[in-house]
Write a structure and sequence with these properties.
Strand content: 15-25%
Number of helices: 10
CATH superfamily of the largest domain: SCP2 sterol-binding domain
Largest sheet: 5 strands, mixed
CATH architecture of the largest domain: 2-Layer Sandwich
CATH topology of the largest domain: Nonspecific Lipid-transfer Protein, Chain A
Number of domains: 2
Structural class: alpha+beta
Shape: globular
Strand order of the largest sheet: 6-5-4-7-8
Number of strands: 8
Distance between the termini: 41 Å
CATH class of the largest domain: Alpha Beta
């Protein structure tokens, strides 16, 4: 059920929490940082939240002007949610919270979603060459592009990728920490690489721990 609760506090921090302080709200924002998403994508990325709760958070964020929705043109025709310009201003705040929480113990059990891993890759990568990758994580496809000093990520299929990397988010996260494990993980089927294997190795190594 949606809520309109307010702290009733004139402080800007309290007013910010009136907008994004509800449970799951910032995680919904996190899932939209890399581009527009369908409701089913956001819902799948937040397995601990019910469909009704995700619906409520999206509706509230839309009402506050943080999120907007639009219908894609044919043949897709589906509705997607995306951050407004104001909503995108939350990105450094979300990323700073993640950095601040590095000393907080991991929950047990813990999930790790595609957006979290890809945000880490984007923020830590220091690429030196141009390349395009099709990255598939848990049946979702992302386009990863590199150029000297910059890596971008967006949802959807790339055109003529140099390489394909197919795995799950925890395995990709492990590879970013230990890229030399690519061969054994490929051998046991947890990672599939197609196309330019050298480009994939470069992608996994061109980041700062």
């Amino acid at each position: 059920m949606s809520t309109s609760r307010s702290y009733g506090d004139a402080c800007a921090t309290a007013r910010a929490l009136d907008v994004i302080g509800e449970r799951w709200a910032l995680l919904v924002v996190r899932e939209l940082l890399l581009g527009p998403q369908r409701f089913s994508d956001v819902r799948r990325a937040l397995p601990g939240a019910s469909s009704n709760l995700v619906t409520d958070r999206l509706r509230e964020l839309e009402g506050h002007g943080v999120v907007t929705r639009r219908k894609l043109p044919p043949p897709a025709g589906s509705t997607v949610y995306e951050l407004t310009e104001w909503g995108h201003e939350l990105e450094p705040i979300v990323l700073a919270l993640g950095a601040w929480a590095s000393r907080v113990p991991l929950p047990r059990p813990a999930t790790l979603g595609a957006t979290s891993v890809l945000l880490y890759l984007r923020g830590s990568a220091r690429p030196r060459a141009n390349a395009c990758y099709r990255v598939e994580l848990d049946t979702r496809v992302w386009t990863v592009r590199t150029e000297p000093g910059r890596l971008t990520v967006e949802p959807g299929e790339p055109t003529a990728p140099d390489a394909v990397l197919r795995t799950d988010p925890p395995t990709l996260n492990a590879l970013l920490e230990a890229p030399w494990d690519l061969d054994p993980l490929t051998a046991d089927g947890r990672v599939v690489v197609e196309g330019d294997h050298t480009a994939v190795r470069r992608l996994l190594r061109e980041h700062e721990a």
